[in-house]
Amino acid sequence: VSTPASVVNVGADLLADAIADQATAVTRVDWRPPMTGTEDDLATVAADPLRRTANERALAAMLDVTATLVDVAPASELLGLEPGQFLHAGPPITWDRASGPLRGGLMAGAALEGLVDDPEDAAALFESGSNVSLEPCHHRSTVGPMAGVVTPSMWMFVLEDAATGRRTYCSLNEGLGKVLRYGAYGPEVLTRLRWMRDVLGPLLQRAVRARLDSAQDPVDVTGILTQMLQMGDEAHNRNRAGTLMLLRDLSPAMVTSGMDASDIAESLRFIGGNDHFFLNLAMPACKLALDAARGIEGSTMVVAMARNGTDFGIQVAGTGDEWFTGPAQLADGLFLGSYGPDDANPDIGDSAITETAGIGGFAMATAPAIVRLVGGSVPDALATTRRMHEITLGENPRWTVPVLEFQGTPTGIDVSMVCRTGILPQINTGMAGKVAGVGQVGAGLVTPPAEIFPQALSRLAALAASRARP
Amino acid sequence: MTNPLSDHVELRPGAYADSVTLLQVSRAVQGLDGVLAAQVAMATALNLEVLTEMGFDIPTEATTNDMVVALRLSDADALVAALTGVDQALRDANRRPEGAGEIAPPRSTRSALRRTSEAVAVVSVPGPSALVEAMDAVDAGRDVMVFSDNVPLEQEVALKRAAAERGVLVMGPDCGTAVVGGLGLGFANVVSPGPVGIVAASGTGCQQLLALLDHAGVGVTSAYGVGGRDLSSEVRGASTREALRRLDEDASVELIVLISKPPAPEVAAEIEEYAAGLATPVEFALLGDGRPDLTAAAESVLRRLGRDVPAWPVVGSATAGTGAIRGLFVGGTLKSEAQLIAGTEGGHTFVDFGDDEYTSGRAHPMIDPSLRLEHLARAASDESTGVLLLDVVLGHGAEPDPAAQLAPALDGVGKPVVIAVVGTDGDPQGRDRQVAALVAAGAEVHLSNAGATRRALELIGALS
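^ inputs. structure came back:
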């Protein structure tokens, strides 16, 4: 029998001292009581015989996915979306509970689809509810940043997992400032959306298809994510390196597409000038990976975190399609121009899928360039990424953080660990104005409402208990 | 010429490491047995050229996002070991230095175990959270001692079921004492390594045995606590079995001692059958009415090992008293043993201050003596008290100088005092120093708790 090389002590410090007195190394756990009222559910879930292997499977399934860009096409073709059908970010919601920026985005979408001439008229249309329907992006294998509004004529990136052929979708990024996804619906918003529909989308389709037709590999979105994380992007609030790598991969085929040279030049300028363009590829890549872990019985891994501007919702691998929701929180950060905290809408968007997959706020340590944008410091950023390892199941071997000695990003949020430690997932986010039509007012840091994790835990415990019953 | 059969080339799509890391990895792999050449590199044009020049046949589908592992082996059978070596080298290259000051401490057992290798876990959080922390250790395949009490029985069953699947030893719940390969966990006495292995469902019972064997010059390398319910019909000896298996595998163990209350009958039969199948003999020290006490068990162990049974030390001499025994204990098993020996017919009373009813919201009396000291003063002034019978338990984890408070409290009690001081010469408190201080305060001090109890009976003229 060998003598233990070291001891992990959780609980009474005196017992750790007794080990240290024997000249043996002790790691002392900074243990604190779990979230109020979760002890029994935590024990039930911990004792679930499926849990350990289910979580190993969920993590492995997620890490196994390689997302490639295989097409660009309108939502009507890809998703069968019809006029009057609107997708939106976050968990399900109705117009009467929708926040300003979501309403603004829907109004812009209605005008884009020609359902109304003036976006202002769309409010009555949505209030009446006739011939319009709202559905979460997540229910259609889609993710949408901020308001996340998708309408039939919007062009979408199509990402595919080569191994399984599974696909996810995301609209094209409009840039910053007054844009639909931040709830703006002015003429410049609609003009840009029409140009994206008429010029950018078709050009990207030709470029993506030309790569495939010429037997080149599709753009490896997961691979770009691997590299951009080493270049100062965390792939939520900073996508600069990723955007330029995408441009590197697509521009030859764009140039030789045969489309009008000035349209090509304008498109290259648009993409190159929009540091967030790659976000709309990072998000569906993360969803593609996380969707691989859906429906694994017994797994406590979060597979989606999403906000609709009113509610923050999570879905968990072991609880099917159920949403666990609570009120979306206000971000803490910096404001553009003269905007202040009173102007901001609560957290909105499907972009927290990046944190769910272990990047964004979870990879803050790799993006020191933007720590000030979200109101933090470099030591905060390092501490944040390290703290997220406390609530995650593992590390991503391809997505690594140089400044943390190439430690993998913290991956696979464990509902149990969140309840045990009280550490909430850290999300980097943009802030939309709370009044429809305003657009972006700032950027900052936000967390989910704490109560949704005990809710999810309670459901996991109920399912485990029902399995345990004969 | 190279034998093509001994070349191994694989692409790892999506795997990434920087070129300096991969250089280190390649070097490490080149040093492995059976490896003639090794190159682990990202499939950049430059690297592919180098690999081609080395004579490796690289699949045409390689892209810059692929990692290439190219190995030339002297023997194709070396492949598995070489690939294991590649994975190990990749992990080593990414290993982070430990101990950087700004890293926050781990917030869970799971997190702490990720940061350490080869660690055992000791869990003493409140009972309702103990399973969750202990299960982290089981998940990680690490042994765990659960010091916490108040763990629901069904949780103990679930924890030990999972542990059995993983080959993990769960010591506890409510395990006060363990010695693992010479390292004391919880309340443990300092003993030399030796031929005896212990499996104990009782903490202070284990400590008494450690102390008696130590005095007799017999060492113990490992003493595994299993928790007081392990041999119940619900838990069915799950930890006892694993502990027996571990001790049986340890070539230095000549005799295994199992200390417990008598198990549920069907469990007793199962454990006896299991023990009979081991190569190492098992001495059953089952404590209870009409059964040998701990000291008798120690004597039996010594005889079985062919050792002499020493006279158990007694220092000081108490005078006779009139009345009943007032037993004030910190050790649960020591209290039960005294009660079994003396009975309660003569009005004797026995209190265990380590019992749940005295410890909720306060430290164990082996750490905080104040509650027992209060009761001591009360019992001393009680006219019906004929003799005060106490235990003092030494070792790691226990209060650093128990005599410092107990001896002054004994001065002028006006009643005979008999104390069992359970400890070894190696214990941090120094057994001799503790004994001397207590004797100077008028107490008669025994090493054997059973001996102390019989002496107390003798002092009040009740020894049959």
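Chain A has 15 helices and 18 strands. The first helix of chain A runs from residue 13 to 20.
thumbs up if we can close this ticket
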